[in-house]
From TrEMBL:
GO terms for cellular component: cytosol. This is Tyrosine--tRNA ligase. Homodimer. Catalyzes the attachment of tyrosine to tRNA(Tyr) in a two-step reaction: tyrosine is first activated by ATP to form Tyr-AMP and then transferred to the acceptor end of tRNA(Tyr). The keyword Ligase applies. Belongs to the class-I aminoacyl-tRNA synthetase family. TyrS type 2 subfamily. Pfam families: S4, tRNA-synt_1b. PANTHER family: TYROSINE--TRNA LIGASE (PTHR11766:SF1), TYROSYL-TRNA SYNTHETASE (PTHR11766). It is an enzyme of class 6 (ligase). InterPro entries: aa-tRNA-synth_I_CS, aa-tRNA-synth_Ic, Rossmann-like_a/b/a_fold, S4_RNA-bd, S4_RNA-bd_sf, Tyr-tRNA-ligase, Tyr-tRNA-ligase_bac-type, Tyr-tRNA-ligase_bac_2. HAMAP family: Tyr_tRNA_synth_type2 (MF_02007). It is found in: Cytoplasm. PROSITE patterns: AA_TRNA_LIGASE_I, S4.
Length: 414
């Protein structure tokens, strides 16, 4: 394909090498880009006219914290932002008060205005670790949703049929399963779609579970006489186990506010196979750079070198380059049996105290029985010496106690 027809001007915009590169950046790691030919036309028109495209990501601030799995979509936004396009970080303060049923068997509970305000502030602060804040447009959908009023809401509802709404998987399944569906739940995808009308969005990003809502935006833009947006969905990131999606409930996540040493060590714990998927979805390296690195590993270079580079990149993004370097050194020290600099200090009473009880009280084991199991497995050290005697009692003094490779505490026993 050598040229693109502009839907807005009727002129022909050439597909240059820069446009082809922008298309490759758009497709990197994505699940779906719908429709690709329309997005190519938009990119070509933007290149020819110098007018940046408007790229929207809407997030309902339903929780105050995010993990790196949530940043997959933000990374894509940053890649497109670096190409010169306008990124709109849309906070769904209005839609959060409706509650989104996407992918659920029941509606998500609506939030209070106070909860939304607190969560939104935290969300944007964390998202700014990925996005360039100076080039990010922050909007709240209450700006145009509140003024709609009852009349506007009814007029909006007339733009979509109940039959098409019931094509949505969760509505379809709940209806046929005899579960209730409240009328207000139909309003959520309508309001999310209306956001695209209000913002004149060219592209909307979201997770694979948001596809119905994203397509709603295309439909409503056409209804209101606008050029329909394209939609780009990103896959869900597998967690540390490489099997389940990253989730706090699965305890296979890395929080973006975690300490640098913990973040670095957790990235190093992933499998060599998963590492390359994380590179595609989380790294800011170009695909050519990643391919060259993979070729080196295939040719015999230690894959740990590539994993260390990824761990340092991710840690530096959410902390700093200096802290990433320090985390690497901390990991090296631990692997050699050394003691990290930032260990917790704990004061306990009751000397002489049994080692299993000490582990429990110091927070290094959940219970004395777990402490005994750790000792049986050779995973407990006191002042660098492996503890093999479960009957060991420690006298008053200060000890560096280690469990496994990552848990340390400086225990002062009185």
């Amino acid at each position: 394909m050598n040229q693109s027809d502009s839907a807005q001007t009727g002129l022909v915009s050439p597909v240059t090498d820069r446009v082809q590169n922008a298309m490759a950046v758009s497709l990197r790691g994505c699940d779906e880009l719908i429709p690709q030919e329309d997005w190519l036309k938009k990119l070509a028109r933007s290149e020819a006219t110098g007018v940046p495209l408007r790229i929207k990501l809407g997030l309902d601030p339903t929780a105050p914290d995010i993990h790196i799995g949530h940043t997959v979509v933000l990374n894509k936004m940053r890649q497109l932002q670096d190409l010169g396009h306008t990124v709109i970080f849309l906070i769904g303060d209005f839609t959060s008060m409706i509650g989104d049923p996407s992918g659920r068997n029941s509606t998500r509970p609506p939030l209070t205005a106070e909860q939304i305000k607190v969560n939104a502030e935290t969300y944007y602060k964390q998202a700014s670790l990925v996005l360039d804040p100076s080039k990010t447009e922050i909007r709240y959908n209450s700006e145009w949703s509140d003024p709609l009023g009852a009349r506007g809401m009814i007029q909006l509802a007339s733009r979509y049929t109940v039959a098409r709404m019931m094509e949505r998987n969760d509505f379809h399944d709940r209806f046929h399963g005899g579960q209730s569906i409240a009328v207000h739940e139909f309003l959520y995808p309508l309001m999310q779609g209306y956001d695209s009308v209000a913002l004149k969005s060219d592209l909307e990003l979201g997770g694979t579970d948001q596809k119905f809502n994203l397509l709603m935006g295309r439909h409503l833009q056409a209804e209101y006489g606008q050029e329909p947006q394209c939609i780009l969905t990103m896959p869900l990131l597998e967690g540390l186990d490489g099997v389940e999606k990253m989730s706090k409930s699965k305890n296979n996540y890395i929080g973006i506010s975690e300490a640098p040493n913990s973040m670095f060590a957790k990235v190093l714990s992933i499998s060599d196979v998963l590492m390359w998927r994380w590179y595609t979805l989380l790294s800011f390296k170009t695909e050519a750079e990643i391919a060259a690195l993979k070729a080196e590993v295939d040719a015999g270079r230690n894959p740990k070198d590539a994993k260390v580079a990824l761990a340092k990149e991710i840690t530096a993004r959410f902390h700093s380059a200096a802290e990433a370097d320090a985390a690497e050194q901390d990991f090296i020290n631990r692997s050699k049996g050394g003691v990290p600099d930032d260990i917790a200090e704990v004061s306990l009473a009751g000397a002489p105290l049994g080692i299993a009880q000490l582990l429990k009280q110091a927070g290094l084991a959940a219970s004395t029985s777990e402490g005994n199991r750790l000792i049986d497995g050779g995973g407990v050290r006191v002042d660098s010496s492996v503890v093999s005697d479960k009957g060991l009692k420690l006298e008053a003094g200060t000890y560096v106690v280690q469990v496994g490779k990552r848990k340390f505490a400086k225990v002062t026993l009185g």
